[in-house]
Amino acid sequence: MAERAHALSTIDGYSGYGAEQGEKKLRAAIAATYYSDLGIEETDIFVSDGAKCDISRLQILFGSNVKIAVQDPSYPVYVDSSVIMDQTDLYQQDVQKYGNIEYMTCSPENGFFPDLSSVPRTDIIFFCSPNNPTGTASSRDQLTQLVKFAKDNGSIIFYDCAYAMYISDDSPKSIFEIPGAKEVAMETASFSKYAGFTGVRLGWTVVPKELLFSDGHSVAKDFNRIVCTSFNGASTISQAGGLGCLSPEGLEAMQDVVGFYKENTKIILDTFTSLGFNVYGAKNAPYVWVHFPGRNSWDVFAEILEKAHVVTTPGIGFGPSGEGFVRVSAFGHRETIIEAARRLKQLYK
Length: 349
Hints:
Elements: H1 2-7, H2 24-34, E1 45-48, H3 51-62, E2 68-72, H4 76-84, E3 91-92, E4 97-98, E5 101-105, E6 124-128, H5 140-153, E7 156-160, E8 185-190, H6 192-195, E9 203-206, H7 219-230, H8 236-245, H9 248-274, E10 279-281, E11 287-291, H10 297-308, E12 313-314, E13 325-329, H11 334-348
Helix pairs in contact: 3-4, 3-7, 9-11
């Protein structure tokens, strides 16, 4: 990244606007690294300034006349971007839901995978695995059910795999590991959680050529039009960093980063388990989902903040099924995690 930044100050190294879809070398490296056996080509990949930004661009693609389904709980951007796009009805305070959205309950009782037989047809299904906030990863059988459900209903799956590198069991790291997924799904990912690119901003979205609207028109062609209209492409400096991450040395470094945060996660998991709490996630994601049965999640958040001076996230912020839970993140320095664990043990001993 430093070399690319310096090159921009030279006549030979200066570059103007790049390809909105991303530099060819980076698109090829992403395809080779993460999709080599899955039939995804570099032309299916759109490099971006992060998954959150691509979610908003894809909402422009979908428009306002669609109905979405989301895991409940899930990353709030799916719902909030739908509200901004006027896809929803008014907020219903009594059930803490927006109208015209299908909230697919994901709880300990159903293994954090929705009962698809009870979900009505929607145009778009937002699905994140490993899930933020619960930290749970869907199995191959579960994702096979999801793909079949989308095919049967003529739905498009928007699959968020931002935490795929944290998977340590045989759960799929990409929706495209599931046969037939290229016909019903698109996928977004990011360097933020692997390489610490939260401020650098770099990610990608895969839109397979096989994915078509009901009228037979290419989804990728429409998304390409939106990208070229509303986006000038990810920073060339950031893209140089992405190429570095996908080199042998970079991949090893990213695995080290993931391993470090997984160790942090285990410290948090062991802390709450030792205190007698029911905890979920942790194995395949840098999040621990802690259950405080019968309690308001904002009250738990405030209690931990005010008495232990530790910041968590109230579960209700991720959807109504998050009530009674808090999300605890492993992203932090080791000494900070150890100190937080000590304070939590003191608070709940």
